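Kindly go through the following sequence and its backbone structure tokens. Advise at your convenience whether the structure tokens fit the sequence:

___
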Amino acid sequence: MEKGPLSELLVERFETMPPQLQVAARFVLDDPQGVALMSMRKQASQAGVSHSTMMRLARWLGLDGYEDIRSLYARALRERGAGEGARANPLPQQDPDYPAAGIAADTLAAQIASLGEYGSAMQFLAAAKLIAGSTTIFGLGFGPSRSVASHFVQTISPLLGEDRKAVLVAGAEALLDAKVGDVVLVVGSAPYERATIDFARQSASQGAAVLAITDSSVSPLARMARETIVVTSNSSSFFPSMVPAFAAVEILVALATPLTDVDAVEKFKQSQEQLAAFGVYWKAAR
């Protein structure tokens, strides 16, 4: 996910902000293009705060007014170029002759492509190093996020050495032995499942490193994580999209595996052969 000119400052000061300013700050963090293009009043409406709150946010950051924030973000958007700026979260105006499926697919493709931008790439590399140096890797997520955590565990398990394992967390008992040297990969986006936050916080208190795949750099999961990968959950429909999160775990596994001394190709081949020997895969009758 792209970052705006004030992202680092907003994240640094987020915990000390009053609640309403946190809401406004999160909007600025999550939609830098909207900050550049929309009026202050429209931004306030979308953020769910008053326009005076947006002005107070600017003063909190040491600026004279909110127009200073918009100017900074507009300049950053121009520098990115019109082509890059077009790859934003909001959908383009629908042409009645353009298939809805094409628009939805283009939106998802742009969201996945944004994971390769410099800021996201650095997040992935740091997260991959964390995973590569871990002993036990836990996959944590509830609700829609559980399928992403499960996919991560299933994908990385066949690639781990004999002295390492990956565990999908079904309940608190799975994390009783989480400790220093372990990693808890936690997946969650707004609205956040209470159990996800509680389990991740407890794991961190036991010394395990929390690696968050979440929808904001100031989400409750990001604020307790050792490393964070920010993905969008916006979609062209009424439900949140899990596609960017699925893409993120696959990128993460692809980056982490070469950092270990395991021959991933051979390990994966052996795993597939073992499953085939157990008759897991369907075969057509001869």
The CA atoms of residues 94 and 103 lie 8 Å apart. The chain has two domains: 7-87, 113-277. Residues 66-80 form the longest helix (15 residues).
